Amino acid sequence: MLSIEKAQDGKVVIAGRLDAAEAASAQTFLDRIDGTVTLDCAGLDYISSAGLGVLLKTQKRLLAANGKLRLAGLRPHLLDIFTYSGFDQLFEIERAS
Amino acid sequence: MISAVQHRPLSASDLQAILDVTKALAEPFDLTTMLNEVVAAAKQVLQAERGSVWLYDEPNGELVLEVATGIKPVRVPWQSGLVGACARSRRIINVPDCYADARFDPRVDKASGYRTRCMLTLPLVDHKNVLVGVMQVLNKIGGAFDADDEALAAALAAQCAVALQRVRMTGALIEGEKMRQALEMAREVQMSTLPGTMPVVPGYDVGATFLPADLTGGDTYDVAMLDQGLLVVLGDATGHGIAPALSVTQMQAMLRMAFRLGADLETAYLQLNNRLADTLAADRFITAFIGLLDPRTHALRFHSGGQGPILRYRAVSADFERFKPTSFPLGAMQIPALRGAISVTMQPGDILVLVSDGIYEQENADGEPFGEARVTSIVAAHRDESATALLARIVGAVRGFSAGTPQADDMTIVLLKRDAPELAQTFERRIDAIGAMVTFTGDAFGRLAIDARLRTRVDLAVEELFTNMVKYGRGSAPVTLGLRAVEGGVEVTLIDRDVEPFDIRRAPDVDIGKPIEEREPGGLGLHLVKRLADRVDYAYALQTRESRTTLRFTVAGLDEGRRGSQGRGSHAVD
User: Fold this and answer.
1) B471: nearest CA in chain A?
2) Distance between CA atoms of B365 and B570, rounded to whole angstroms?
3) Least C-beta-crowded within 10 Å: which of A12, B176, B221, B568?
4) Domain count, chain B
């Protein structure tokens, strides 16, 4: 299951599993955000290439409008996936403390 | 009278005499010759009629006089008489008139008919200050021994002591070397009967190891595929020295012969026991596990002569079943009627654990034995690992436990491990089956005790391959997902039916260095699978049009960093 919502501080909080089955709903949500947005990934358990595709599409759109998506709190077991896909070079990633 | 050693400088002729003696003493390497040389030298240098040497037998606290070959040596307590006094004081005793001295024992004279007038008794002390013995020189020709003789005798005694000690130590070394060589030969024979390689048994993982102790031990094992099934043997002969090594070698040969001649388990066991009872020394026996496994029915039948505990790890209940021996040790006596063999069915994941007492009884520095509990806890904790890995763990644990304590006995382990089950489930070819696949994978991880750190990679691989199948496969046949625990990780198999071959290893790699504008999500999933899996294998069956992708993930692979994009693996089309 996936939950994605905007917090009071303006961050977008994503939690659960961002897989092929959930990619469409995540895309729908992220298509509505603008500017520079921090995506709080501390609760994100899983991401597949379908999820990466959602993030990539969002990042391209925001960058074109001088905004960007910043990833925060990404857990170590997901960092591998960002590294092996080269996505660590496409996003500003704030490591989990 | 007791005189201090060394009175005056030796004259040139004295020195010459001693040098001649030294030369003579350098030659012999057997004790009898050396004793004769020493006595001859003393007689010559001191101009005496007779001489004798008492050797100090320290362990028995005695002085021993080798009278002549074939006659029992004379032994006296090392404190008694003149020789005893000399040995204790380590000083020359010069008795000019023996029959006037209370310490003189005239019994030797009486027995030999010789009359001792005067006598010098010299301590033989080597250069390391070790008392080697006492020399007595009798009846100075033409008079009594004087102070000059005492000085000369002291110098001579030192030479004799060193020469004698050299011969004694050489003798001990030669004896030790002979024993060592005999032992080595017996050990070589013993080792030569061990199987060179483990047989390949479908559905099973078999491992065995044998660590010989330095000096003694009589362990053996055998694992061989015979007409009767898979033979599994672990034996341990009693006793020390070369006998146990030879006993187990004999047992191995008899057993192999019996089975080759078509004997069943009972006949082989009975015959083996009764023949060993005939031939082994009365105080010897061999504890042994002898079992036959039918790898198709998984029935394991065994007898155990005093070999125990026999352990079976039961995967289904995650505990150990413990079997006692079925009879007394082999060769102890004839068996009139043999009880039935123990019969067990090896279930998936079960492990037969045979361990010789050299492991159970190996002590640490505090004298605590390694024990059975340590063995079972290692096997239980690492049950999913290969037999070879388990063997290494047990050996490593024993070595660590006994660090610094010498290995007291042979150590032997035989492990027979039935392959762990593959958990498999079939899923409909629809994207929303992913949820059910994730649930199944989570359940399988728990049941197969797979390291949870591998979960993300497995989930990702399953999802990527599955979504790929759904997107590009034209058929409607369901997809099967299987998981199997392997050493340090998990093997994941996805089977897609009624499809064209698709080998993900040949899928193009994604250039992850491209700028974001040029990046596309396509192909990324398979790229990640190849990167994250330790190994990718692919096979396609033409007849059934079945595409099978097998991925391996291990904890070791987690730490391995970036892998080559081609991965490792083999390709097969059958």
Assistant:
1) A20
2) 49
3) B176
4) 3
